[in-house]
Design a protein that fits this description.
Layout: H1 27-46, E1 53-55, H2 59-70, H3 74-90, E2 93-95, H4 106-111, H5 116-130, E3 142-145, H6 152-163, E4 167-171, H7 179-182, H8 195-200, E5 208-212, H9 228-231, H10 234-237, E6 255-260, H11 268-271, E7 275-278, H12 287-301, H13 314-320, H14 325-341, H15 349-356
Parallel strand pairs: 3-6, 3-7, 4-5, 5-6
Antiparallel strand pairs: 1-2
Length: about 375
């Protein structure tokens, strides 16, 4: 007789489990699932095929300016045509930076604990950018105010790196005239574009422009900052015209950051165009984290740091935490030079003490 197949049936509960036997979700497991989901979202965002693209200039404007340039003569013609042809070669459509998730700045809270309020502010704007259709990084102009040497500029540079944005440094104290930013008319012998044109003369049209020491313009060039007024307003920045290369370009995707020590020294009309955030000097409890950040930055910046031990002695760290962030880097460089001369791989307190006493040496020029 053929063997009959037996069909097994699994028992089906005819009623709900008693209350004390019902399955409950494991909160730890739920947190792990949420973490995995967030990591997948971050990966999907970073793995997008291409960054968003926006139009820097109109083809009709380019055609008109090339025709006008053809009627110029001499150096003026060559200068204008060179810059227009480069812009035409790069094309009217350029990349813009996509805003990352706010969590990408979490490590800044550890490296710059005294800047946590500003970091939270930027994270809020990143969350807003995530609500836009293409998640373009677009923030209002931000002015950081604080005492000299507490790390405002270093913070903005690190922020730009985490945001994935190119950064253009403009030292306001070193600007010599109004045309430094907006260019000098081609009718002058020394005509050339300004720094804003050069900042956008790349494949990315949404860099961070850092205006360092906004409260210290040269005494005879106060008026030069007037060119910033239209650039800091989105609707007027969308058709910015450089004086040397008068092609209307869209500068409204530039993200502006500035630093100053005394906000009252910034001209009121200019000050009103920034959102102002104050940064206090790091407390003694915060300094070890700041020191660790400065030391990591030096290790990535200077190849010669590979010739020294990664860790610092506790006594050395205790002495360093009495300094400002700016003094940290300067003193560490001098102390490492002394250790190198002594043939040691590890800093000693004596190296720092000697550096405090104004030690300078010609061989520091390789820094």
């Amino acid at each position: 007789m053929p063997r009959q197949h037996q069909h097994h049936r699994f028992p089906v509960a005819s009623k709900a489990l008693p209350r004390n036997r019902r399955l409950r979700a494991d909160p730890d497991l739920l947190r792990q699932i949420a973490c995995i989901r967030k990591m997948a979202e971050d990966f999907a965002g970073s793995a997008s095929a291409a960054p968003p693209r926006k139009q820097l200039f109109a083809d009709s404007d380019m055609k008109a300016q090339l025709e006008i340039a053809s009627r110029l003569s001499g150096d003026a013609q060559r200068m204008v045509q060179r810059h227009l042809n480069r812009a035409k070669t790069l094309g009217p459509w350029r990349d813009v930076v996509r805003a990352p998730y706010p969590s990408c700045l979490d490590e800044l809270h550890r490296s710059f604990p005294h800047c946590s309020e500003v970091i939270s502010l930027v994270q809020g704007y990143l969350a807003l950018c995530q609500r836009s259709r293409d998640c373009v990084l677009r923030m209002p102009p931000l002015l950081l105010v604080g005492d000299p040497g507490i790390g405002k500029t270093a913070f903005i540079r690190q922020l730009a790196q985490l945001l994935g944005s190119p950064i253009v440094d403009v030292c306001v104290a070193a600007l010599s005239a109004g045309f430094s930013l907006a260019g000098l008319d081609s009718s002058y012998d020394s005509a050339k574009p300004g720094q804003v044109w050069y900042a956008l003369d790349t494949e990315c049209m949404s860099p961070i422009v850092l205006l360092d020491e906004l409260d210290k313009p040269a005494r005879d060039s106060q008026s030069m900052l007037g060119s910033l007024y239209p650039l800091l307003e989105r609707h007027t920045a969308s058709r910015f015209v450089d004086q040397a290369v008068p092609l209307p370009i869209n500068a409204s995707y530039v993200n502006w950051f500035a630093t100053c020590n005394d906000v009252t020294a910034v001209e009121p009309a200019l000050r009103s165009r920034f959102e102002i955030a104050s940064i206090s000097a790091p407390t003694r409890a915060q300094m070890p984290a700041v020191l660790a950040s400065v030391h990591r930055e030096m290790r990535s910046e200077y190849e010669w740091m590979n010739g020294f031990d990664i860790e610092l002695d506790d006594n050395v760290m205790a002495l360093l935490t009495e300094m400002t962030p700016r003094e940290l880097k300067r003193s560490l460089a001098k102390a490492y030079a002394l250790a190198a001369r002594a043939g040691r791989r590890r800093l000693a307190v004596a190296d720092l003490v000697q550096s405090f006493n104004g030690f300078t040496a010609k061989f520091m020029g390789f820094l």
